[in-house]
């Protein structure tokens, strides 16, 4: 039973850690004034959290997204790409 309790505690701490940046942003900025603002914040915080989890550069991803939009190209994906494997012939 103790192992389950320890696992639950770690899971809860991870969840709180994931929500904390949003809570800090909301306290410091006094929220948004519109539904569009809420949607922007949801999206940018999701992009930020995902890039950090994948150890990717947030600014590079956002910049690439804006450049792609301005040039009518598809933007970069947040879905991790499988690493290329090389099949060495022995």
Architecture blueprint of SSEs:
Blueprint: H1 2-29, H2 35-53, H3 58-70
Give a description of the structure.
There is one protein chain. The chain is mostly helical and 90 residues long. It folds into 2 domains: 1-29; 32-75, no CATH class. It contains 3 helices and no strands. The longest helix is centred in the N-terminal third of the chain and has 28 residues, at 2-29.
Give the total of beta strands: 0
User: What does the overall shape look like?
Assistant: flat
Largest sheet: none
Ends apart, CA distance between termini: 51 Å
Structurally, the number of domains stands at 2
The fraction of residues in strands falls at: under 5%
Helix content: 55-70%
The topology string of helices and strands comes to: HHH
Mean pLDDT: 80
Gyration radius (Cα, Å) is 19 Å
Number of helices: 3
What ranges have pLDDT less than 50 throughout 5 or more consecutive residues? none
Structural class by sheet pairing and helices: mainly alpha
In short:
This protein is an all-alpha fold and 90 residues long. It has three helices and no strands.
Main attributes of the structure:
mainly alpha, about 90 residues, 3 helices, about 0% strand, 2 domains
């Amino acid at each position: 039973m103790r192992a389950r309790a320890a696992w639950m505690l770690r899971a809860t701490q991870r969840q709180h850690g994931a929500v904390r940046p949003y809570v800090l942003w909301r306290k410091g900025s006094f929220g948004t004034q519109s539904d569009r603002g809420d949607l922007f914040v949801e999206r940018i915080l999701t992009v930020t959290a995902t890039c950090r989890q994948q150890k990717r550069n947030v600014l590079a991803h956002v910049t690439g997204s804006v450049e792609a939009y301005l040039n009518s190209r598809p933007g970069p994906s947040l879905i991790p790409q499988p690493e290329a494997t090389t099949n060495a012939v022995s």
